[in-house]
Amino acid sequence: MPPEMLLSWTAEDLATLHDIQYWTDILNATDGVEIISVSEMEGFDECWNEWLSCDNEYAVGDRKSMSAGAGKYMNFIAMILRRGKI
Fold this sequence. Notes:
It contains 4 helices and 2 strands; from the N terminus they run ααβααβ. By secondary structure, it is α+β, with helices and mostly antiparallel strands. A two-stranded antiparallel sheet has the order 1-2. It starts with 10 loop residues before the first helix and ends with a strand.
């Protein structure tokens, strides 16, 4: 686990974060789902900057990790799926 990630979040928190390959594998193993696309979204920096600038207690807590560079390990993922017959 990168140390900058652990400045704001626990290992248990971080266990909920997954990459595109993880989600693609999950979706491929799901009956009744057709993957149209799974991709990285634009706007990561803008969203985080807005979040970190607010006074929400969780946003304040996230600042230490993000200031240390934790953002380089994260992204936002967009999934477009088609539900089929199960």
